[in-house]
């Protein structure tokens, strides 16, 4: 009889361990689900803020940065379009100084470098593509020589 009770005790212990493991997995699953829900809410809120954030309210529709260049470590010359008037501003040392004012040229009168909205970004992307193309071409030639 003691052998039967030992077997029953072992079976009960195994059943209890399996139940604890299932309970632990259920708790882990609930925690993972809650974490995924919190991350989804954060991503949803960030997408919503990007769509209707402070920059999208239309407050700056009358003010547009046309061009900017650095003339020192902290000084810049900036051209700003304010409702059809271009202001050339000197920015630096905690102050802004108007250097010149002129009517904005019509879009067909702009030189190509000023009319190009992408400018640096387009040139940089093109250079990166060319660099990647050259890198992959060299590595494929090397692997082709070894074979």
TrEMBL record:
* Superkingdom of this protein's organism: Bacteria
State where the protein is found: Cell membrane; Bacterial flagellum basal body
The protein's matches in InterPro entries, at most eight in alphabetical order, are given as:
Flagellar_biosynth_FliO (IPR022781), FliO/MopB (IPR052205)
- Could you confirm whether the keyword Transmembrane appears in this record? yes
The main place the protein resides is membrane
* Pfam families named in the record: FliO
Q: Which UniProt keywords apply?
A: Bacterial flagellum, Cell membrane, Cell projection, Cilium, Flagellum, Membrane, Transmembrane, Transmembrane helix
Q: Which residues cross the membrane?
A: 32-49
Does the record's keyword annotation contain Cell membrane?
A: yes
Family named by the database record: Belongs to the FliO/MopB family.
Q: What is this protein called?
A: Flagellar protein
Query: Whose protein is this, by species?
Result: Modicisalibacter luteus
């Amino acid at each position: 009889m003691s052998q039967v009770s030992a077997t029953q005790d072992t079976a009960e212990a195994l059943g209890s361990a399996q139940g604890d493991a299932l309970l632990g997995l259920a708790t882990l699953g609930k925690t993972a689900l809650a974490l995924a829900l919190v991350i989804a809410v954060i991503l949803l809120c960030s997408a919503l803020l990007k769509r209707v954030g402070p920059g999208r309210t239309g407050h700056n529709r009358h003010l547009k940065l046309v061009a900017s260049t650095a003339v020192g470590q902290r000084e810049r010359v900036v051209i700003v379009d304010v409702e059809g008037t271009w202001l050339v501003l000197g920015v630096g040392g905690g102050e802004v100084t108007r250097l010149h004012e002129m009517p904005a040229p019509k879009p067909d009168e702009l030189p190509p470098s000023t009319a190009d909205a992408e400018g640096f970004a387009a040139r940089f992307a093109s250079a990166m593509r060319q660099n990647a193309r050259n890198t992959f071409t060299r590595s494929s030639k090397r692997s082709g020589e070894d074979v």
